[in-house]
Amino acid sequence: MLQIDSLCKRHGPRTVLSDVTFQARPGRVTGFLGPNGAGKSSTLRILLGLDRPSSGTALVGGRPYRSLREPSRTVGAMLDGSGAHRSRTAYGHLAWVARAGGIPRRRVGEVLAQVGLADAARTRVGRFSLGMGQRLGLAAALLGEPAALVLDEPVNGLDPEGIRWMRGLLRGHAEAGGTVLLSSHLMSEVAEIADDLVVIAGGRIVAAGPLDRVTSGYATLEDAFFALTGTGRTEHGR
Ligand SMILES: Nc1ncnc2c1ncn2[C@@H]1O[C@H](COP(=O)(O)OP(=O)(O)OP(=O)(O)O)[C@@H](O)[C@H]1O
């Protein structure tokens, strides 16, 4: 369970998160949706202990990330793609992440196979496509076999086949009792993957609940997105 409660974040005079409260539950894929600059990454960074809130709490399995005893076995994260250095091979990168997290090296081969990168294990990350980078980022998140996954824009750069694959993997994780929280700025992508939706706009939660309930009453998913986030029609894409 991921629990965000009354989170506020200010940068100087600027308030980027106001009273953000929501949960991502085990057995469910939760989509965290909002236009660019809405506050998704800011929320996920606080949840993962990379930034501190001005007030409020963000808990992973009932604890703040920074007080987790075995963080990489509790929550797997992907922010900004794979985060791997260009000169490293996929295998080398994952072996390094595994060592840092006290995870047995045998997991490296397992996660490479799980994300479909077994044949690219010895390829340097600099030669990866955006989609391969996303798969590598997901592999790193899966290394510690965590119950919770937190993924920032995981389908960014994936082709339709890649999105379908990602959906299957995340669905399997949720069906095995895991918790999945993923952010996206595209309603159509998130609607393909999520059970529950949390919509953020201007640093505030504007809707939350099961996907069909949040989007009901709108002619199209796009209409729902624009109505909920109050954004103009130019907001489509990056
Ligand atoms: N260190 C900072 N100082 C000042 N403002 C910041 C800082 N970090 C983020 N912001 C602002 O906070 C707001 C929310 O940014 P955030 O990155 O969380 O949005 P997002 O929903 O993840 O969008 P994107 O998909 O574009 O990253 C933005 O307006 C951003 O400019």
TrEMBL record:
Family annotation (InterPro entries): AAA+_ATPase (IPR003593), ABC_transporter-like_ATP-bd (IPR003439), P-loop_NTPase (IPR027417)
Gene3D superfamilies: P-loop containing nucleotide triphosphate hydrolases (3.40.50.300)
Residue intervals of the ABC transporter domain: 2-227
Keyword Nucleotide-binding on entry: yes
Entry GO MF terms: ATP binding
Keyword check for ATP-binding: yes
Superkingdom of the organism of origin: Bacteria
Coiled-coil stretches: none
This protein's UniProt keywords: ATP-binding, Nucleotide-binding, Transport
Family (UniProt): Belongs to the ABC transporter superfamily.
Name of the protein this chain belongs to: ABC transporter ATP-binding protein
